[in-house]
Design goal:
With 202 residues, the chain is α/β, with parallel strands linked by helices. It contains 6 helices and 8 strands.
């Protein structure tokens, strides 16, 4: 249900960071002409944090324009800001500087790692909240982790980790489903079965 209407969502992936900005409208229209009514889009953390502590959402990184185009063209959006996106992207979108931090554990309920995630989320989540359905845009779901079940041998506390990510979203007035997706079908390890996060499957 979107708003008060039952909808069948037909969704295709479209990634602004792999398409010249001047072609965004055309590519969204092509998906629409092919019969889709939604796009899913990753937001690579290391594309927007251009150096440690420095964030950019301008030019090719202007996600407000991308999200406004989707809304103008009547396409719903599943927003997937990571922090890890995979997508065959450098370090799955995680900033390389994290590898130089002593004792930091990636993609786990680790306070130091989560401190850096929160700094990123505090920059991008206000924008995504602004463009959710019912506000200025058409985002119908927010994904907060991607295929953590592929990482099951490393992430020791999926429920705690997913819960920490969920709580980072709470200051930003999201009124849409918060989701995490499984890549191998192991929804427990992908989501920790955290009660406020909807399990989904790729």
């Amino acid at each position: 249900i979107v708003g008060e209407e039952r909808k069948i969502i037909l969704c295709g992936s479209l990634f602004y960071f792999r398409i010249n900005k001047e072609d965004w409208r055309d590519r969204i229209q092509q998906l629409k002409y092919a019969g889709y009514n939604a796009i899913d889009v990753y937001f690579p953390w290391n594309f927007h944090e251009t150096e440690e502590g420095v964030f950019s959402f301008e030019g090719q990184r202007d996600i407000r324009t991308f999200l406004q185009l989707a809304a103008t063209l009547d396409m719903y959006v599943v927003a997937r800001p990571g922090p890890y996106i995979c997508s065959e992207y450098d370090l799955g979108g995680l900033p390389g500087y994290l590898l130089g931090k002593d004792n930091l554990i990636l993609r786990d309920n680790d306070p130091e790692y989560l401190m850096y995630v929160k700094r990123y989320f505090d920059h991008i989540l206000p924008i995504l909240s602004e463009y959710q359905v019912g506000k200025k845009g058409s985002i119908i779901a927010l994904q907060i982790e991607n295929e953590l079940d592929f990482y099951r041998s490393v992430c020791t506390d999926p429920k705690g980790y997913i819960g920490a990510l969920y709580h980072m979203t709470q200051p930003y007035d999201f009124d849409i489903p918060i989701i995490a997706c499984a890549g191998q079908g192991d929804e427990e390890h992908a989501t920790g079965f955290y009660p406020d996060v909807l399990p989904t499957f790729n």
